[in-house]
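User: Please predict the structure of the protein below. I'd like the answer in structure-token form so I can feed it into my own downstream comparison script.

Assistant: Understood. Taking the following sequence of 386 residues as input:
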Amino acid sequence: MLIDRYRIFALAAAAACAFAVPAFAQEVKLPSTLTVTAYDTGSSGFNIAVAVGKAFKDKHGTDVRVLPAGNDVARLAPLRGGRAQASMMGVGVYFAQEGVLEFGVKEWGPQPLRLILASSDCNAIGLGVAKDTGVKEVKDLRGKRVGMVVGSPALNQNALAVLAFGGLTKNDVKLVEFSSYGAMWKGIINNEVDAAIGSTISGQAKEAEASPRGLIYPPAPASDKAGWARVNKISPYYSPHKATCGVGISAQNPVELTNYPYPIFMVYASQPESLVYSLAKSMIVNYDAYKDGAPGAAGLELKRQILSWALPYHEGAVRAFKESGVWNAEHEAHNQGLIKRQDILAATWNAFLKTNPPEEKQAFLKNWMAARAAALKAARLDVIFE
């Protein structure tokens, strides 16, 4: 009887394996052509899109067309219009989900966006501070001059979020406005400002480091839970990250900083599960084929994914993650919570449009933001943008 029980158990296990194997070995099926939008030609996002596209061509015969675009609206428009399937976006995906800033207009509103994979490499995005200020920690920026860029709310939001880590608000520093990102960083060199938001590996940061003023990036340790709670109250897309490259930073001298993934490979929720599964699966199993194809591409590695981020993952990507053994119940609960948030925002937007809101852009935005805040508060969700 004992032998029979072992035999039955073995047969049952074999049957289970027979059903399990196809789940892990499902064939990746990509279309003959794929259109992806990205940042401008020469940007890291564009270059990474090209590197991944080459891997798709080599492994699946798929021709990938990469469309460069200068801003978030231009990158998303082809996806919404059905002229492109995916995009290598920046943090504008979060603003689009929330229907704020440049997406708080009648033509857009909150968008149902989904993640596939995102790159977290050796660099980080934080406040670079002139070394001659004597600043060592973020809280030391009290009373210092912090750069703001006119017409770039995303950059300014990031700077305010980093200040919040040190318990500071815009009222605790001197905000200095500049016409462009480049002008702001020139302002550090010219002693017109003391701190500016930017990547640790940007050319502007390196130029400031080489100037007589020097440059440092004050740390934002993950162990400071209160500091990070303040950061995420303003910018939920920021996460603690151990930077190992950039100004004053190396693998031997890492610094814990604020960061968010870039580029963010994403699609609309309406894209077929089979397509998104194939995209995610191919990028996971063929990582070695593109990781050295462009600076930053290595950050798309599966183990570097933040599976509880600020945007929900597409069901096709989730399927690929489950097959890879990295998706758990907590990730699923977080994902469903984000989808619920998107549903609430969409319903609020549709109801708002039926109220015959004002045509004037600023009045429209003001009324929409009030309706949005009321709906999120009623659902006991963070408003983030007041």
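That's the full token string. Residues 125-259 form a domain with the D-Maltodextrin-Binding Protein; domain 2 fold (CATH 3.40.190.10).
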